[in-house]
Amino acid sequence: MEQENKKVPVHVAVIMDGNGRWAKKRGLPRLMGHRAGIEALERTLRAAAKLGVRYLSVYAFSTENWNRPKLEVAGLMELLQRFAKAKVPELKENGVRVRFCGSRKGVPEEVLRVIDWSEAETAECDRITLVVCFNYGGRQEILDAIAAARDARCEIRSEADLQRFLYVPELPDPDLLIRTSGELRLSNFWLWQSSYSEFYFTDVLWPDFGEEELKKALEAFSGRERRYGRVEQL
Ligand code: IPE
Ligand code: IPE
Ligand code: MG
Question: Is the pLDDT of residue 230 over 80?
Fold first, then answer.
């Protein structure tokens, strides 16, 4: 495995941003940017598996993205279904487990079916887990966890109590959180989980991202000292 002597993050999270600007620069419709973004995702996933990352989570559609033009939202729903149907067999062959993370509320029935099918198909895969955050919002996730705990008649008294009711409870917190396209914000991603994540920002637009860019991010990560509130180690 490459990067043998370096700390490799277990969980890499990515805010895949900049598809629209990538398309605009080329005089193309925004959806073409999203399509190119899927190719970037495939490249990044392949590289992440090769480099020893165990979980790759990607922000694909936020709870706020419903506020985009109807056509773009419909196009994104369509793209997700097409991507899953076309790629899941290949992902399965390569040991990629697919998990979706987000609220099911408001998601069209046919999209939910594809989501469930993708997860069932790849349930036994264990080389790397791709967590697709879709209709995801960090605040919504916390609210949903509180509601789910209440329905189960569980009182939340500790972090572990809440963790049990998150969308993907067994997912370790992201070690490294990457955002592309030069924006320096979280946009409601992994609010609970990112409390001690290392952040890496790049101006590269998501459709231009791939193995080389991921390596740069992992390189930066390997030089970080994570202190968790403790005193610096000499
Ligand atoms: C990120 O790219 C993809 C989604 C939000 C689905 P954008 O669509 O946000 O691209 P920009 O930020 O407008 O360039
Ligand atoms: C965050 O990007 C959501 C995804 C990448 C899916 P946005 O482009 O929606 O975020 P803002 O609006 O720039 O904060
Ligand atoms: Mg954006």
Answer: yes
Confirm whether 150 is domain-assigned. Answer: no
C-alpha 61 – ligand 1 centre gap (Å): 9
The amino acid that residue 107 corresponds to is V
- Ligand 2 centre to CA of 62 (Å) is 7
pLDDT at 3 over 50: no
Tell me the ligand closest to 137's alpha carbon: 2
Q: Which domain holds residue 38?
A: 11-139+173-222
Establish if 157 belongs to a structural domain. no
**Rounded distance from Cα 177 to ligand 3 centre (Å):** 16
17 is catalytic: yes
Q: Is residue 147 part of a domain?
A: no
pTM for this predicted structure: 0.97
Atom of ligand 1 minimally distant from the CA of 62: 5
Question: Which of 185, 197, 79, 73 lies closest to 132 in space, CA to CA?
Answer: 79
pLDDT tens digits, one per residue of 46-99:
999 999 999 999 999 999 999 999 999 999 999 999 999 999 999 999 999 999
Atom of ligand 2 minimally distant from the CA of 206 = 5
Q: Is 175 a catalytic residue?
A: no
106, two tokens: 């408001």
Shortest-distance ligand to the CA of residue 205: 1
Check residue 170 and report its DSSP letter: T
131, two tokens: 């967590």
The Cβ of residue 54 has, within 10 Å, a number of other Cβ atoms equal to 16
Token digits of residue 161:
């109590």
Q: What CATH number does the domain containing 197 carry?
A: 3.40.1180.10
Q: How many domains does the chain have?
A: 1
Which of 5-14, 19-28, 203-212 is predicted with the least confidence, judged by mean pLDDT?
5-14
Evaluate whether residue 1 is within a structural domain: no
